[in-house]
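Would you be willing to look carefully at the protein I have copied below?

:::
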Amino acid sequence: MRADRDGLKYSIRRDWQLYLLLLLPLAFVLVFKYAPMSGLLLAFKDYKIARGFWGSEWVGFEVFNEIFNKPDFIRALRNTLLLNTLDLLFSFTMPIVLALLLNEIKNVFFKRINQTLLYLPHFLSWIIIGALAYQLLSEGNGLVNNVIEQLGFNRVPFLQEDSNWLISYLAIGVWQSMGWGTIIYLAAISGINPELYEAATVDGAGRGRKMWNITLPSIRVTIVTLLILNLGKVMEGSFERVYALQNKVTTEFTTTIPVLVYRWGIENGDFSRATALGLFQGAIAVVLVLAADRIAKKLGEDGLL
């Protein structure tokens, strides 16, 4: 035990500058990540601003019973699962496909130009993307519909009809995230032994066979790890994305859990219900991550924990 203590003291004395630099991010995590967790108590209280945090009445799970019986909750839960499941299906797989295609580009200059152009949408805020989407896809004067009309076809309500809005929502999400999502996969692909490809070439394998038998199995661990992390987001979703693309005409899929938390907490000032809904959302996300990790281990993968 004494040797361990001496070793810790020695490492701190030797690398004290690094430990000093660690204090700032550690303080950030403690102040902005862990300290606010005390506010979760609002989910079990009938919170009144006049009574304060500690003076509000403790009601236990009554708030949860109340929100679970609300029609808005069922609708928000359904939409959250639907949007995020479809988003996981397309937005998770497209970066893998794109990384495989980019890896096949041999011209370094052309490859870098494409990567830069594909990364750019990630740095745009959803407010800007939403504004661009309505300028391009609006039924009344959108640029895309103007071109469609010039070609002799009827205008398409991309964002003014529920089913079309859902397709547009997914397509815009894929466009915004797929370029940035390729970074990790391309890094994993770059670590594959080139001799494997050379041996496959000698055996007469084409590009498709190399991707299927060499590239994909080699990055399987990366795919599984990111899939587990993304499964935790199935109950979250993007508030900014839905909020930027919603309108008064399309209301079928725009009520999600993050949007409902915003409406209850910020717009209506019902902090107890908003906190309870957020806590429920976080708890389900943890369960999904743990379940996915356990399934991955059962299938022979390393998992996260």
Remarks:
- The beta strands are 45-46, 57-58.
- The CA atoms of residues 127 and 244 lie 6 Å apart.
- The longest strand covers residues 45-46.
